[in-house]
Amino acid sequence: MLTLYQFATLLLCTNQDFFHISPDNCMSRYKKIITKAITSLLFILLFSFSNNVIAADGEALFKANCANCHKPDVDYTGPALKGWSTRVPNQEWIYKWVANPAQMIASDAYAKALFEKWKPTVMTAFSNLKKEEVDAILKYVDDYTPPVATAGAATTGAPESDNSLLFGILTLVLALVAFILLQVNSNLRKLSDEKVGIHRGEPVPFYRNKTYLMTGIIFLFALGGYYTISGAIGLGRMKNYQPEQPIYYSHKVHAGVNQISCLYCHGGAQDSKHANIPSVNVCMNCHKGIKEYKGEPIVKEDGTQVNGTAEIQKLYSYAGWNPDTKEYNPDNNKDGVPDGAQSIPWVKIHNLPDHVYFNHSQHVKVGKQQCQTCHGNIQEMPEVYQFAELSMGWCINCHRESKVDFYNKETGEGNKFYSIYEKFHTDLKNHKMDSVTVESIGGTECQKCHY
Amino acid sequence: MSNKQYWQNFGELNQSDAFKQSTEKEFTEELLPMEELSKEGFLDGKTPRRDFLKYLGFSTAAATIAASCEMPVKRAIPYLQKPDNLIPGVANYYASTYVNGGDAISVVVKQRDGRPIKIEGNELSSLTQGGTSAQAQASVLDLYDTTRLRHPLQKVDNDFKEVSTFDAFDGIIKNAMVNIKGEQIVLLTSTIHSPSTLQLINEFLVKYPGSRHVQYDAVSYSGMLLANEACYGKRVLPVYQFNKAQTIVSLGADFLGTWLSPVEFSKQYATNRKVTGEKPALSRHFHFESMLSLTGSNADDRYTHKPSETGAVALALLAKLGGSVSAPTITDATLKEGINKAAAELLKSKGASLVVCGSNDVNIQLVVNAINELIGANGTTINRAANSNYRKGIDADIVSLTADIQSGKVKALMVYDCNPVYNYADGKKLGDAIAKLPVSISFNGTLDETTEQCKYIIPSHHWLESWGDAEPTTGYISLLQPIINPLFKTRPFQTSLIKWMSADAAATSTADEYEVYLKNYWTSKLGSADLWDKALQDGVIETVSIVAGATYNNSKLAEAASKIASIKGAVTEVVLYQKVSIGNGSQANNPWLQELPDPISKVTWDNYAMMSPELAMSVLGIDVMNNQRQADSYEVTPEKPVVKVTVNGKSIELPVLILPGLNNSTVAIALGYGRGSADESLSLDRVGKSATGAGKNAYPLVGFNGSSFIYNAVATVEKTNNKYPLAQTQVHGSSESRPILFETNLSSFIANPEALLEEPRNERLSLLADGKTDFVTEGTIYPNYEKPGIKWGMSIDLNTCTGCSACVVACTAENNVSVVGKIQVQKAHEMHWLRIDRYFTGDVKNPDVIFQPMMCQHCDNAPCENVCPVAATNHSSEGLNQMTYNRCIGTRYCANNCPYKVRRFNWLDFSGSDSFADNQEPLRGKELNESVFQMNDDLTRMVLNPDVTVRSRGVIEKCSFCVQRLQESKLESKKQQDPSLVRNVKTACMQACPTNAISFGNVNDKASEVSKARADENRNFYVLEQLHVLPNVSYLAKIRNTDRHVGVAEEIKESEAAHS
After folding, report:
1. Contacts with B, A 430-449, CB within 8 Å
2. What pLDDT does B134 receive?
3. What is the rounded CA–CA span in Å between residue B1036 and residue B275?
4. Which pLDDT does position B6 carry in this prediction?
5. Contact B789, A404 (CB under 8 A)
6. Within this chain, do residues A193 and A284 fall inside the same structural domain, yes or no?
7. Global pTM?
8. If you write DSSP's letter for every residue of A191-246 in order, what string do you get?
9. Is the pLDDT of residue B831 over 50?
10. Which residues contact A309 (CB under 8 A, 6 or more apart)?
């Protein structure tokens, strides 16, 4: 409504001004009009733009903070969040709950009931989230519509494959028609030539016709070349690589069922180029207490069942821990570690070539990417496999599409590092570009990853 | 200015045919391996077709084999217990101290995943202020030296047997010591200025009555020590303050290269060589020497004399300054005039003048002390209230020690951190005597010449594995802390002393460790353990000393003057010097240092007899100055004629290197080369693959005058019929006399600052079409690409670059630059990303020298990028010329098209990184030196920087502006959300520079260092700017503080007049 009103006013003003133009102040008049028009337009844009910003933030915030335990539409580790307004006492309650669930459970009846339903899991406190951010999350959750499910994707995919088959058949038919026509043509020419008196020899059968043979050879060569090259490109790519590990370690049990944050074990992901496989003492932080596996049965892909407790025993032998005495073995040989202890020789799954520089902290801390973006739904993998292709094209695609957390000079939002990109600020302002992607700041250049 | 000539060699000076031919091609090799290709068509020749099929067949088979192999299973093995302060993949930095002999430089060591990989200067040290030297930079490689001893040894029947434990070793030593109880035990070490070690040694000497401590320096300063004792009552070296000196006169002291504490002095010297403000003031530097040293080539005015005349020059200077001595007759008019000028300037800036002298003759140093008194240096530019502890050795001590060992007076010798059998003139005699001693113990880390004569060897840690302290200057403590656990079964020398002092023979107690001793020592001195931790973190403890003089006593002066007057010269004399790379030879097995081109001669891997063209003419009959044919035949091939230099009956055969600027009677020979075991067949294993075969040992030529060693002597030089190849990087990468340097003298610059760069300015304008003004955007048909965020740029100040080459080694260490070995350097295949071009100019007999660091200029309009057929080199939006190794197919078009000649091609698999193992093996000895194999040992490879790709055969590489550091700094500022943090980034060369000659940063940021440096428009120029390649490296023109005209047209007229 406001926008419409403004537009109307704008038009009116313009008209008024228009009627009052005199030749001598023509220029200044125009300037005024333009200035006004631009200001109004900017205002309108800002209004609509800022709405987008919050909506986008809601999604990011949800993914960063809540998605580990909550889904908008279905129950997960925690309850589905959609429709919260019909369940909770009031909106204020939500703020308090998010900031300090433990206290709410102690003091609030609805909170206590909620806990009873979902225990023993207690919601993590997010005291760092501001009210506006919680609002943004709630708005995102309410507006959430599930993406078209896999079945839908299949239905949309099916006609496509039908089409290509159709096109293939069509091409074949056309080729056949062309072939027949060519044959007919040559026969006809032969007949007409004979009529005129030019005698031609017996026609060469098509399977000995050099033109046809050559065409066939070129076609086969192109086809063979295509497959050779695509095969060669695929060399060394190990998508779906799922080696057998020294200990059957299930990410599903740890990250999925037990909701251990990825960074608890892979802390390097936010500080270092390597995400780092946790040292054995990190495993032992929990497994000094957790001696046996009591969860749902773990079943391998081949159907065999994994004995979780036996796998924990393997960890103890690597750590040099005696579960009976609850102590580490003594260090008699004075090498600084318990006797018999040794590092676990995990098999590395995600291998980048030596000439690639990849930095986890760049992507996790600066780029704010989720682990799942590259590693897949790791919380659902019993044993980890390589989810993404880890090819250069795959990297580049993401760099082309991902937007950087660009600094907005007006609002002060975004990563202040990007304040030095004067040109992009102006371009954004003038709508010469609509967003700053990793590519625009040079993220697809060779020496960003190869040096 | 345009007709002023800058030249690198005689061929270029004379524009000889061979020189012109050599500049035509970037590479001397044929472009394709099939030689006959050029004569016949590709498919016509018989052999090429077979070759082609062979290559095709091999590559197909190789590709099939490589492709059909299964992907290897890689392991990711985490820590068992991760240390708290370590995140794999993130580098930690620890303060420590580079110590070698008496040298000490405060450093910060970069440690990645537990391995020290790079040395940086410690900016908290007020002595070195973050500067480093080539030797300090390279010392990280010594840690991973394959010749390091891996456990204690005992000599049994002329062979070394491992001693299984330290306790067993201690037992053996204690038993041996019992037998010689009360007899003379000598602890022979290099100069030690570690306060805690000195205290410990004193305790040890008390424990063993009859024992004594002898300090011995490979290259001695005992002349100065004794002269100071005579004049000021203390046998110490004073603290020099070059930063307070307006006039500096050096009598052969190479204080920017090798003399005493060059890093400290370079920092001080550079403060007065920066051109700042409207009316810049520079210090004035006179240099008198026989050879052409690094410091000499930086001097404003340089004069040469015979080596034997050093004393005469000093006396003449003293007399001119009004000293009560009679001046000797100086026949050379130029030299005489130089002395007069120097004296006048010294008096003019009285109280801010300094004279230093590199001679080890007590008498000459006595005269120098007298000079410094007259010019008011005592207490101003020379601080005698504090001591420089870098050198303490007295030469007479080692001479008498040798006699004592021979005569049997001394029964036991303990050697630590010195190698007198190699670097003492009578070393052979000493070695034979040591071998006959009942007890001889070495603490040295390798089986060097001295250690192999000893009976018991208990190797000490490398400094990167050590705890320790150093007090290079009174009040300035620099601490050592281990950056890595000891790689081998080695033990600190100090711990051994503690163990052998304690009564219980096999006591294994941590209280006996030197670490504990050191900690206790400093905790009690500093007052608390917290202060000790803080000091360790900083790496330095400094108490500022007050600058003061000392009472001067001139009683010995007259006697000294008369002794100097009696020194006799000759037609040919020899002067022995040290190179900035190899120094005294203790780091001779360091391939980085061996392959570092000497800043002056540009020779790698060898020493040689350096002489002037005139002397070469008389000795060899080669006239390089005037006879083009002879110059070419001498210069173009690496094979150089060999001469025999004889001093006091001892002779040495060395190839001749002809260089302008040397005195015509002088042959200069570098020390530190020619390392080797007594049994030559063991040299490769004991002394090392890089040290063996590199040059000849010149230490036997050092003379002894009764009180100190003398590093110059009367010599005879004879021609031989032999030839010996020298691997010189000199003419690789010639700029073909294009104007690439600009310089002027101070007075002209102050009078008309804009005239200096008038020529390039006019040329820029002449290249623009009518009505256009902006050379960068309008001087080209190519589009102008914007650099929206960061645009990296570098500025190099030619005024403060001394050519010391610390940057070259730093670059090598940071960027995993391959060592190629002597054979490949001869073929111009060296890999250095950064080279320091040395140009001569002006008077051909005594030329001015100018150094220009040259690396990839990261041209915004780069000629290399246009010609790459596979886009392996292209430009980034941050102004970097990017090189993508994996895309490179080795056409080398880029290198051919680079006007700066900075691209390097991997001709062979230098890094051993090819997928086919052992493909280096057939080339061993023929194409690849042993040193290349040394670099590819698994132990040595630990020094590699894991953030930089190791390049394989067949690809081009070049300076990347240390892109890994740029990326890291950008990441850090993104994490901190603060763009100003990128101002902290330092390239490896910039960090290493002891004179801050290099500035680097974001050109778009007006507050960055590089923007500030480029603001000096009257001096800021780009090399070959007229090509419109738009380099991102700029240079600041050189200003010399001299009366001569430099770099202006008059100079040419002057020199022409002088010659006619």
Report:
1. 440-442, 445-448
2. 93
3. 9
4. 78
5. no
6. no
7. 0.83
8. HHHHHHT----PPPPGGG-HHHHHHHHHHHHHHHHHHHHHHHHHTT--TT--PPPS
9. yes
10. A291, A292, A293
Cβ pair B979:A417 closer than 8 A: yes
Confidence of residue B744 (pLDDT cuts 50, 70, 90): confident
Chain B residue numbers touching A283 (CB-CB < 8 A): none
Task: With respect to residue A239, please indicate whether it lies within any of the assigned structural domains.
Answer: no
Q: Which residue range(s) make up the domain with B208?
A: 153-220+393-538
CB distance B80–A232 less than 8 Å? no
Specify if B664 maps to a domain.
yes
Tokens linked to B970: 């950008």
Residue among B831, B811, B260 nearest B583 (CA): B260
Closest partner CB to A420 (pick from B790, B876, B885): B790
Number of domains in chain A: 4
What number is the average pLDDT over the span A84-96? Answer: 83
* Residues B1035 and B889 reside in one and the same domain: yes
Q: How far apart are CA A342 and CA B217, in angstroms?
A: 48
Higher pLDDT, A68 or B770: B770
Residue B798 token pair: 């030619």
Residue B650 has pLDDT above 60, yes or no: yes
Three-state SS for B719-785 is EEEEEEECEECCCCCCCCCCCCCCEEEHHHHHHCHHHCCHHHHHHHHHCCCCCCCCHHHHCCCCCCC
Residue A120, in any domain of the structure: yes
Q: pLDDT class for A155, splitting at 50, 70, 90?
A: very low
Q: Which residues of B touch A416 (CB under 8 A)?
A: 977-979
Give the DSSP letter of residue A139: H
At CA B267, angle to CA B261 and CA B270, rounded to 5? 125
Give the model's pLDDT for residue B408: 87
Does the residue B77 lie in any domain?
no
- B788 to chain A, closest Cα gap in Å: 6
A90 shares a domain with A137: yes
Find, in chain B, the residue whose alpha carbon is nearest to that of A442. B877
Are B921 and B897 within 8 A, CB to CB? no
| Closest residue in chain A to residue B81, using alpha carbons only | A281
> Residue B716's domain is classified under what CATH number?
2.40.40.20
Which pLDDT band, with edges at 50, 70 and 90, does B1033 fall under? very high
| Nearest by Cα to B300 from B331, B341, B239, B352 | B341
Tokens for B1014? 């480029």
Question: CA–CA separation, B337 vs B343, rounded Å?
Answer: 10
| Residue of A346, A446, A449, A450 best to disrupt the B interface, most CBs of B under 10 A | A446
Contacts of B1048 (CB under 8 A, 6+ apart): B1, B744, B748, B755
pLDDT score for B389: 92
Report which of residues B84 and B591 the model is more confident about: B591
Question: B148, B151, B106, B79: which is closest to B942 by C-alpha?
Answer: B148
Q: Is A419 on the interface with B (CB under 8 A)?
A: yes
Residues of B with Cβ-Cβ distance to A316 under 8 angstroms = none
Residue partners of A407: CB distance under 8 A and separation at least 6: A413, A414, A415, A416, A417, A418, A419, A421, A425
Closest by Cα among B149, B820, B808 to B459: B149
Q: For the residues B711-715, what does the mean pLDDT come to?
A: 91
Distance from CA of B775 to the nearest CA of A (A): 22
A65 in any annotated domain: yes
ipTM attached to this prediction: 0.84
Print burial letters for B227-249: b (CB count within 10 Å at least 16), e (below 16): bbebbbeebbbbbbbbebbbbbb
A46 has pLDDT over 50: no
Among chain A residues, CA nearest to B874:
A446
pLDDT average, residue stretch B482-495: 92
Beta bridge partners of B652: B645
Q: How far apart are CA A302 and CA B1019, in angstroms?
A: 75
**Structure-block tokens of residue B144:** 């991973």
Query: In terms of domains, do B698 and B763 share one?
Result: no
Q: Which of A234, A264, A284 is the last residue of a domain?
A: A234
